[in-house]
Amino acid sequence: MPTPILDAFTAQSTFADGSTFRCELHDMSMGGIALRTDSARLGEAEIGTAFTT
Fold it and tell me: Left, alpha or beta for 14 (phi > 0: left; psi -120 to 50: alpha)?
């Protein structure tokens, strides 16, 4: 399910060490989500990593 481009859904979460990151949700489906963020660290997360908000 595509999400709005101009008024994107945003989320914020925390890494295990307490540092936070913010991202935009761009697509949601049964298989997962597509996120956009400027946090290079989030890109290093392993597939299947679960975050809480």
Answer: beta
